[in-house]
Specification:
60s Ribosomal Protein L30, Chain: A, 311 residues, single chain
């Protein structure tokens, strides 16, 4: 796949291709990479997971308030987080940019430098993409390919009544920009895949309440969250001081935590909680009534509104 469309192969775009050829991290995962009409990946004796996300200035970030490196980092990281949620091993990525006409080569390079931080951390080869210029805002579309680890991918649809619900870290407060510096839980997913039987999983992008609702809908079961057990981040507590919302509400609904949310059997969860290589928290249990509820410290249950972030 060409990195720059044919209409723009002169000038700055040609310089960008040459710069990328010299600077994209290489890990030997592509037979043919940037520079031809298409990238070629060797056939792997496993299934391939494919995920894509588009981030737009003014919707997913504000270019006037962030560094281009931070924007590039997040654009790559959100895709890798999707692969972690399915216990897939990231392999390669293609990057398509629609850039403002005012954007200079050095600025585009800064954007890629942010992506390189994630690609180096997880050995993901950027093997191509496309670039166009227009009068509108910066738009970044990245597709990442991952190979199957173990016996199967995780999905959202295999939770069972009686399963224990867990998360890999504190939630809420992403508005204080944690969502531009998070590390996708690829390593945690790999360890869980190798050592435990996870039933259903997702990453928390739209908020705990909404993403758990996605799991129970796909699995045709219900869930009860224990509010006192939900790990609330310090950022959520800080935001609550001025937002008029509780720290728990932030943890439930802010979204873009990019922690793993998953279910497993009661027996497996007990083993996880004493595993020194894991840092997971039990936050609830799956039920057989197809409802999503929350339970306070006094044991009182009520229906949990499926809030969360919507674009």
């Amino acid at each position: 796949m060409r990195l720059v469309s044919g209409r723009y192969t002169n000038g700055m775009e040609a310089e960008l291709i040459h710069w990328l050829r010299d600077n994209v991290p290489r890990f030997g995962k592509a037979d043919i990479s940037i520079g031809d009409d298409a990238a070629v990946l060797p056939v792997i004796n496993s299934r391939t997971a494919i995920t894509t996300d588009t981030l737009m200035d003014g919707v997913h970030f504000l270019a006037t308030e962030l560094s281009l490196e931070d924007i590039g980092y997040k654009a790559m990281a959100v895709n890798v987080s999707d692969l972690a949620a399915m216990a897939a091993e990231p392999v390669a990525a293609v990057v398509s940019l629609t850039i403002p006409r005012s954007m200079q080569l050095a600025e585009i390079q800064q954007l890629y430098e942010g992506m390189f931080k994630i690609s180096r951390r997880f050995q993901i080869e950027i093997v191509g993409g496309d670039t166009n210029r227009w009068a509108g805002p910066l738009t970044i579309a990245i597709t990442v390919f991952g190979k199957e680890r173990g016996t199967s991918f995780w999905t959202r649809s295999d939770a069972k009544a009686g399963d224990i619900i867990l998360v890999t870290g504190p939630l809420g407060g992403s508005l204080l920009r944690r969502h531009f510096s998070f590390l996708p839980r690829v390593d945690e997913a790999a360890y869980l895949q190798d050592n435990y039987n996870v039933h259903a999983a997702t990453d928390i992008t739209d908020g705990l309440a909404r993403d758990l609702a996605n799991i129970i809908e796909a699995s045709q079961c219900g869930a009860v969250l224990d509010c006192d057990c939900i790990p609330v981040s310090n950022d959520a507590r800080e935001l609550a001081k001025s937002s008029g919302r509780t720290p728990l509400d932030h943890a439930m609904n802010d979204g873009e935590d990019f922690e793993l949310l998953f279910t497993t059997s009661a027996e497996e969860s007990k083993r996880m909680l004493v595993d020194p290589k894991l840092d997971v928290v039990v936050i609830g249990r799956c039920t057989d009534d197809r409802q999503l509820r929350q339970r306070d410290g006094n044991g009182i249950e009520q229906v949990l509104e499926r809030g969360g972030y919507q674009h």
